[in-house]
Amino acid sequence: MQRTVLALMSAACVAVAGVAATSSVVAQEKYPSRTVKIIVPYAPGGATDIVARLIGEHMRQDLGQSFVVENKPGAFGIIAIEEMARAKPDGYTLMIGNVSTNAITPVLFPKKFKIDYVKDVVPVTRLVDIPEFMVATTKDFPPKNVKDVVDYAKKNPGKVRYGSVGVGSYPHYDAALFAKRAGDLDMVAIHNKAGASGVINDLVSGDAQFAFLNVASTAPMIKAGNLRPFALVNHARLPDYPDVPTMDELGYKGVGTIAWQGLFAPAGTPPEVLETLFKASVKAMQAPAVQEAFKKQNFNVVPSKSTAEAKTWLAAEMDAWKKIAAEVKIELAE
Question: Coiled-coil ranges per the record (predicted)?
């Protein structure tokens, strides 16, 4: 009788263990089983917000759960990054950030963080990157190309004005790095806190004479004849602007920023969840509607090859910005 009871108990334990193992597998397979939050470090309507909503909608279609965007602007992206990093690492709180928030801010303002950015944040994949123009005003600015700008600045030290969206922003660094590489040119920064639209207004009015700004924001004014594109920061020339050379072609390799967007998660998120997110986001970028939307904006679809490659890519981006910050000395408000 005792043997029978022991045998039954043993069988029951095996059965329970089997059920537990099966339940564990089922639980893993169910991700996502509820709404996923994507934090965006900007107000609605900008490039990062647009990318988040496009990708989120197609991930919803693929994975069967809602991907809801929450906009958390402010503090150079730190508010959004910290909220994401402090969330439970289960794949239900993500972030779509960009080169400014997720590469430049951690390099320039590490002391502003209450987290360890490198240890607490993990990239899932790069998503897209956005070409940039060096554009010039058409108001009382004689130069017709990049060489002319250099020659004009040398003859008129302290009189050439470039536009920027703020101290320490990548358009600020881009113009300052250009000035340094072109021969330590003496130029003046005109900062406009209204963002790209504010800088464009400065250029159209002639208050600023040139600036580095993304193609999507400047294209309408270029087509209207109010701005002139002198050079392009991109992997290659754009079909819509075949006569505009890249900065690399002009001998300024590494000058200018191709502003990328990427998907991020809290460190400690299970590898299988990261892999699910990686595959779903890459699949979303392959959707015809997404491809067409990005093409209209001249966004390049550039997913990482894997989650491991995404980590290598982000580390390289941060290293590059450390070098730029060391080469170009800009006084930053801490």
Answer: none
Specify whether 126 is located in the same domain as 268.
Answer: yes
Within-domain flag for 218: yes
Is the same domain home to 77 and 103? yes
Whether residue 5 is contained in a domain is answered as no
Query: Is residue 27 assigned to a domain?
Result: no
Same domain assignment for residues 125 and 136: no
Tens of pLDDT along 66-109?
Answer: 999 999 999 999 999 999 999 999 999 999 999 999 999 999 99
pLDDT tens digits along 14-60 = 444 454 444 444 445 689 999 999 999 998 988 899 999 999 999 99
Total of domains in the chain = 2
Per-residue confidence band for 1, with pLDDT thresholds at 50, 70 and 90: very low
Domain span at residue 284?
33-130+258-327
Residues 122 and 265 in one domain: yes
Residue pLDDT, tens place only, 270-290 = 999 999 999 999 999 999 999
Residues 296 and 313 occupy one common structural domain: yes
